Structures are given as C-alpha cells and as structure tokens.
Amino acid sequence: MSETKIALVTGANKGIGYEIAAGLGSLGYRVGVGARDGARRETAVEKLRAVGVDAYGVPLDVTDDQSVTDAAELIERQTGRLDALVNNAGISGEMDPGWVQDPTALDLEMLRTVVDTNVMGVVRVTNAMLPLLRRSASPRIVNVSSGVGSLARQADPDTEIPIMAAYAPSKSFLNALTVQYARQFAGTDILINAACPGLVATDFTGFQGPRTPEQGAATAIRLATLPDGGPTGSFFEDDGVVPW
C-alpha cells in the first residue's frame, strides 16, 4: 500500500474547507475534495493541482445516504484507505440581521435542515468512512465545529455571541457526538477531535471576520496530523482548548 497519506475533506470546494485541503496537500497528503457542486468541486481540484497538491474530486452530499455510500466506494477504488477525515461541510440556516436566530420564532424545518447537515451529515460520513480509516496506521478524524457551540461561552452573561438558536446548538450537538465517538474509539489508534476555526471572513459569514481562511484552517490541519498518542475527544482553537 502507498506510503502517501490520504485525506478527505468535506465541503472543500471553497473557504476554510479548501484551505484545509490545500494545507494537507502541502504536507504531502493526497486529498479528496468532497463537495456536492460538481463545477465548484472540479474548479477547486484544478486550483489545488496547479499549486502541486495531489487532489481528486469526490462527489459528496453529506445529507444524502446514497451520495455518502458512493463517495466511500470511490475512495475505496482510488486509494484503498483513509488516514484523515475532516468533516468540514456545514450550514448556518437562515438568520436575521446581526446573525440572530430567535428561538421563540424558530422555523422547525430550517432547524431540521441545519441538524441534518451539521450533525447527521457528520455521522453519515464518519460511519461510511470508518472501514477505510481502520486500514490506516494512524487514523485521524476532525469535526469542524465553532466556538458558538461552547455551552460555557454561550452561558456567560457577558458573552458577545449572538442568539443563534439553530446553528449554535447544532455545533453543541456535534461537540457532544465527538466525545461519544472518542469514548467508542478508546483503546484504538483513532483520534477524533473538534476544531474551532474562529470568525473567518468567507461567504459563510458574509465575508465578515478578522481571520483569513488560511488562519481558520490551521487548527483542523494540526488535529488531522496529530502524532500517535495525541489528544482525543477534545475541542481546540488556536489558543488551546475551548471550554465545552
């Protein structure tokens, strides 16, 4: 089996996901660019290849069971294993001005859609890719979360985090699942952690935020390349551990 390490990044056609793919590629990984939009996916692959990254496209809609199954089969044919899975794909759901989602007026269908992508999508992809990850000597899983998912930060009376009654709880749910996976993987070589990219200026945030996509990708890249014996079941940002 090839010595080249293999990664899959979901939602990798733009923004933070693209920079995670680029960063792993610069470290010598062969990177699967997971994205549902075919044109954007292939454009991202071409851009990555132009800077020397060994990238290939993976058609992937994390909300669709068959799409996820097909993606796992494609990676099986392409590489035969995975060394790193970065669950980056996510959505915010519709927000009012100021990034507010009022819990007293929350659209339940919108909430279902956010949870289906940000939480259930991670479970779909992770479980489908586990057979491939188990073939790696040092498998790593990174769930791209957000500091707004920190209950400690949300509950702080001095918090500046807006009320985000769909997006923030979806990331809290994702964090809780990360812990459950870490418990299940205890005693194995699989390390799984959550990463907070910070407030990054991308189309996801309306290009508001002090951080670049490259800066936002840094923690996820570090967690995807942890050495054996590294942390698992934790939540990190650039400055260290994020409180649950």
TrEMBL record:
SUPFAM superfamilies: NAD(P)-binding Rossmann-fold domains. InterPro entries: CBR1-like (IPR045313), NAD(P)-bd_dom_sf (IPR036291), SDR_fam (IPR002347). Keywords: NADP, Oxidoreductase. Pfam families: adh_short. The keyword Cell membrane does not apply. PANTHER family: (+)-NEOMENTHOL DEHYDROGENASE (PTHR43490), SHORT-CHAIN DEHYDROGENASE_REDUCTASE (PTHR43490:SF99). Belongs to the short-chain dehydrogenases/reductases (SDR) family. This is SDR family oxidoreductase. It comes from Streptomyces zaomyceticus.
